[in-house]
Amino acid sequence: MMPSNSVIICLAYILGLLFTVFPWGGVWVFGLGILAAVFFRAIYINFQKLTQKRDKSLTKGRSGNNLPLATPHPNVWLIAGFVGLLATFYFQLRVPQPGTKDISQFISDENNSNQEQLVIVRGNVASNPRLTRSQRGQFWLEATQLDEVKNDQGASDVPQGVTGKLYVTVPILQATGLYPSQEIAVTGMLYKPKAAANPGAFDFQKYLKQEGTFAGLVGKQINIIDEERKWGWWQVREQIVKSQVRFLGVPEGPLVSAMVLGGKAVDLPYDVRDLFVKVGLAHALAASGFQTSLILGIILQLTRKANKGIQIFCGGLGLISFLCLAGFQASVLRAVIMGFAALIGLALERKVRQLGSLLLAATLLLVFNPVWIWDLGFQLSFLATLGLIVTATPITKRLDWLPPIIASLIAVPLAATIWTLPLLLNIFSVVAVYSVPLNIITTPLISVISIGGMISGLASLILPDLGSTLASFLYYPSHWLIKIAEFFAILPGSSVAVGSISTWQMLIIYGLIILTLLMRWWQKRWWLAGLMAVVLIVVPVWHSTNNLLRITLLATDKEPVLVIQDKGKITLINSSDEGTGRFTILPFLQQQGINKIDLAIASKFLVNENDAWLEILHSLPIKNFYAYASKLENNLEIQAIQQKLQKHQGIYQPLALGQVVNISAGIAQFVNDTLPILKLQIFGQNWLLVGTVKSQQIEQLVKNGDLSSPQVLWCPPESLQDLVEVLKPSVAIATTNNLNSKTLSAISKGNTKLFFTGRDGAIQWTPNGDFEAFIQVTENKSSNL
């Protein structure tokens, strides 16, 4: 049966929003609408003529309305195309943009670079403080006033009225006790967020823009202006969390609260959050349909003897209360809208079509906020729900040889995984191998914790002690859930990086899923569709991995970090600090589908005592590890690295000064430990990595042979001019461009091509190509779309 008119128009609206990724995407949707109208018009006319000939002897003057009722009129397709065109314009109108008074407009370029300028920002707290990975307090601030600090006496000049929301981080003690709607003044430094500078890295600028924020504030001190505590839903949420944490402790208490209110409403420790994401249990921390189904089920069961009016009123009140507690997130709103659709069906005594209510929820939410079309939480929530609606039942029927409960336990996580995995691969490039069996095992625990958490949370609002006592019975289920997740996380191959699949690969895979859903021929050959999807993912990654020759110099703040890909053999040189390892190196390796490192060289290039090797070894095995340090026997970090290597049968080798290390693509040699200097010969090209060097040292280093003219030079910006003038490399790379215009002009007059990773992002080179800057390549791809 063809879809109804309203379904076509809703889908056209959503398609128009999706086509905003292409230039003039709305025109394409409108064109598709015209083609569909022409096609169905031809069918309409032919059907009309056939009907008139057939019924001429029986009925005269028929109007021609003899098409099946479910067949849309051709004009519907024209309207749908026009709606899709309007959707693209509506999207552009609703994309967050800084206003003329937005606080980001008052950040100068100098203030956003190395020139730190103290300011005092006054405004209202818009969220409860959270703990960041760097152990700082973070909250959102609705800015109202900006003062610039020009001396130690405090603010100067006339305060400026501003608008906009700020991403604020402060020392944890400064953030303790803050609450939403409180008026405060924060002293600190304003900055504009930066886009991702490395392949696979987190795009902080994009994240803040989706939140309608265009500036951040690194706060040093907070002054409370308004001490009056105003009532808000945050107080209810805080009382529930405190009650559950009281006897459960950490992390069990926050885990129970997060499974009831959602991970975004609770400050759950990052190690638990990361653990659940890694093993495929992230959905347990997302407030969505599971919680709303439990709420409605419990309320309707408790009010089963009351009339329908009371049932609907209580159910609606429960849904609205849950929405206020969990927050106005896309996934929560979707679940609440579908919950209200179920209540309407109860009132009308009609069975609600879940697929229709899902489409209605999607359309309403995207009319409310069209930018959500590119929100990952929105996308995953709807794909998972779609999978449960259209795929869980067919899977259950194929498992009819199993008991119904077991078949359902298998079908639900498998259906959700089928629909969400292609999107996750496109974004995160990692597969949680044991996700489905883990979800089957933990579903009973998740159900018990969720139901118990809701009961204890409700009781805590009446009697906090009673709520804490009831929550204490959830200690073992929540503790067991964490231990089971930890067990699966340490299993061999628990997560496998398959590389980032392209958008076209993702769309083809979704096309195969839809064909299997709609066409009987594909339904009988579902295994063929699955095999084609796997081949579509694995073969391109395998071919690229085993044929790729590339050097990537990652954009880092301190020491140079190089990743050398030589036909499947991976060499990593340096690791910088822990943050670089977690947010730069590992995401890049995952995006490239790299699951092991063949050779690593830790040169302690800038005497970085807090490097990321343990962070990397926690996720990836290293086969051969070379480390340079002056006192290896006293280095506790080296001992910890050796223990990690032994677990994965890796080999640790101390690196002596002047020792030549054979890598797959060439050789490496650490020739000076005071500056320092690292020589590389990779793919027949000479690289020279040099630390900070004074002008008077260069001539002596050249005589000693420590410095020789390379094709590629990396050095700190303060040494760039002197080294380029003496060594005359083809390419010179520095971290930041803090040189004055005169110096930069003098360097640029030569034949040396300059890159600055702080401006250009990661620098990549292949034997058959030129050096490319990641940010420039990304901008070109975006403009081509």
Write the layout of secondary structure elements.
Layout: H1 5-18, H2 25-55, H3 74-94, E1 118-125, E2 130-131, E3 136-151, E4 154-161, E5 165-171, H4 172-175, E6 183-191, H5 204-210, E7 213-224, H6 233-248, H7 252-261, H8 270-279, H9 289-302, H10 308-326, H11 330-348, H12 354-368, H13 376-390, H14 392-398, H15 404-427, E8 430-432, H16 435-462, H17 464-472, H18 475-489, E9 495-497, H19 503-518, H20 520-524, H21 526-547, E10 549-554, E11 561-566, E12 569-573, H22 578-591, E13 597-602, H23 613-619, E14 622-627, H24 636-647, E15 651-654, E16 660-663, E17 666-672, E18 677-682, E19 685-690, H25 695-704, E20 712-714, H26 720-727, E21 731-734, H27 741-748, E22 753-756, H28 757-760, E23 763-765, E24 772-773, H29 774-784
Parallel strand pairs: 5-7, 12-13, 13-14, 14-15, 19-20, 20-21, 21-22
Antiparallel strand pairs: 1-3, 1-6, 2-3, 3-4, 3-5, 6-7, 8-9, 10-11, 10-23, 11-12, 16-17, 17-18, 18-19, 23-24
Helix pairs in contact: 1-3, 1-12, 2-3, 6-7, 6-16, 6-17, 7-16, 7-18, 8-18, 9-10, 9-11, 10-11, 11-12, 12-13, 13-15, 14-15, 15-16, 15-19, 16-17, 16-18, 19-21, 22-23, 23-24
